[in-house]
Amino acid sequence: MPKEIELKLSLPAHCVKHLLHIPLLDNLSISAPPRQKLHTVYYDTPELTLKNQRCALRLRQSGNVWIQTIKTEGSAASGLHERDEWEVPLAGNQLDFSQLSDPVIPKFFSDPALREQLRPIFRTEFTRQIRILQPNKSDQIELCIDRGKIIAEHLKEPFAEIELELKTGNPVALFKFALLLAQSFTFPIRLENRSKAERGYSLYTGHQTPPVKAQPIVLTADMDPTEAFVLIARNCLAHLTKNEQGTLAGDDIEYLHQMRVALRRLRSAFDIFSSVLHDPEPLVHELKWLTRQFNPARDWDVFVMEHLSLIQKNFAKHSGILSIRKVCEKLRQSHNKTACYSIRSKRYLELILQLNLWLAELLPYSIQLSAQQRAKTTLKKFTTSLLTERHEHILGVCQKIEELDASSLHALRISIKKQRYAVDFLQTLYSPKAAKQYIKTLSTLQDILGALNDSTTINKLLGEIPKSKANTLTIREAIGIILGWNKQQIRQKKTELKHALPAFCNSLPFWRTHKKYICI
Q1: What is the pLDDT of residues 373-423, one digit of tens each?
Q2: In which element (H, E) is residue 259 found?
Q3: Measured between alpha carbons, how far is 85 from 301 in angstroms, rounded to an integer?
Q4: pLDDT tens-digit readout, 322-362
Q5: How many angstroms separate the CA atoms of 176 and 195, rounded?
Q6: Which of 49, 91, 292, 424 could serve as 45's disulfide partner, Cβ 3.0–4.6 Å?
């Protein structure tokens, strides 16, 4: 079955001419750069049956040649796209399913009713410049520079992108070359996680892909810990990068929230598997940098969009609440701009590429381990002691909960969050029902402690309001209302925390079913 492996990057249209003249391309090219005019029509039913089946059908014209292509969704993360692809040359611009002999092709193409409903949905028109690159003896990459537009009825969306398709060799070569490319020029480029088909459907429907949450991970008990880490890290990277576009669009604060969750999950994975990883510190350092870029924006999102909105409903007639909301909204937007700037930065691009390269080079090592080596360090053996150690630490802290100050409660929340992510990653190694019940008790504590932390953060955020604004009478009154409301929230959450603790303290550590802890 043909499989397409490519890395996509987007860039400003006016930068294409500069890209064509960088020495790196001349040094690695083994072919003259031909130029093509491509016209592509994407087909679907009025109900978008193919899209819902995660499949794309297109006809592409290049000169007098027509190619019919079917692509399944496959996977796309960090700009790397892996899809099954079937291409058939045609005599003209009419769909022809008579040559679909591969049994793997989705069966619904054999349905006459579906074929009858197929019609053009959107099209692309672009110029493509191609170079075949040979970075070393074993790897060959096709570099395509596309510039044009997507057209859906009366709507148009311009695009300029680089496609690096692996023709022969190892996907590692794609990330190595992309890093060289990123370091070769100063104009902004970004990893592109959406195909032209995805962008065309978004333009056609007028709907952006909703925020993406973490997807399940399936691990096996005899898996090598390094192999498990690679699968988990790639899952986290997909979670992170698939929310980029929504964060940059700025229409929904949930996109940034999910990017931040993905970062926390990824950092937790590095923490869990630190003993089997070689020199991860440079990458961990950069992940901490990115977390710092996102944290203020998320803090202000929660304060303005959740807490202030609730307070405003209860004090709708107080002019100071409306005034402080306007001031805080400007601060929120400013911090969100900083977060978006970091996503667009060269540092972010290089971080994602370096992570993918590092993971691609790490995986072969774990696969090459002998059966004897794997038996000594199976994933289940590796993780059982870790889960026990973390559980007992949390349990010990919870039993002196009355003595904890805000800083200690924050540290407890971090410990609980790390344990929750660890169990979430590893739950397929154990009883799913028991794991989910344990996660539920952790999530309850995490939510309560998170609300307490938000309340502590509110005092800090109020201190960022410019003094020229904070000193007005109405805003001083509004700050007093917020602080009073906040104290009441803290009291309520501490009561909820006290009531929620026994469920966790008396929970059965499902990975060691012979032992039960009792909360004193």
Answers
A1: 555 667 888 888 899 999 999 999 998 998 999 999 999 999 999 999 999
A2: helix 253-272
A3: 41
A4: 999 999 999 999 999 999 999 999 999 999 999 999 998 88
A5: 21
A6: 49
Type and span of the H or E element at 258: helix 253-272
| CA dihedral for 430, 434, 440, 446, sign (positive or negative) | negative
E strands, 11-110, where? 35-44, 55-62, 65-72, 75-77, 80-90
> Taking a C-beta distance cutoff of 8 angstroms, is the pair 166, 139 a contact?
yes
- Report residue 32: phi and psi, to 5°: -70, 145
Calpha distance 124→196 (Å, rounded): 8
Spatial neighbors of 370 by CB under 8 A, at least 6 apart, are none
φ, ψ at 240 (rounded to 5°): -65, -55
What is the 8-class DSSP label of residue 315?
T
| Residue 50 contacts residue 44 (beta carbons within 8 Å) | yes
Q: Name which of 323, 298, 301, 302 is nearest 312 in CA terms.
A: 323
The 10 Å Cβ neighbour count of residue 302 is: 20
- What's the CA gap between 219 and 225, in Å, rounded? 10
CA dist 518 and 506 (Å) reads 5
Residues β-bridged to residue 407:
none
Q: Is the pTM of this model over 0.70?
A: yes
What are 84's two structure tokens?
């099954």
Contacts of 330 by beta carbon, 8 Å cutoff, 6+ apart: none
Phi, psi at 182, each rounded to 5° = -65, -35
Q: What is the DSSP letter of 303?
A: I
Distance between CA atoms of residues 75 and 54, nearest Å: 11
As given in the structure block, the two tokens for residue 172 are 């590692």
Q: Which residues pair with 69 in a beta bridge?
A: 58, 87
Distance CA(81)–CA(85), nearest Å, equals: 12
10-26 burial code (b ≥16 CB/10 A, e <16): bbeeeebeebeeeebbe
Closest CA to 241 of 75, 363, 357: 75
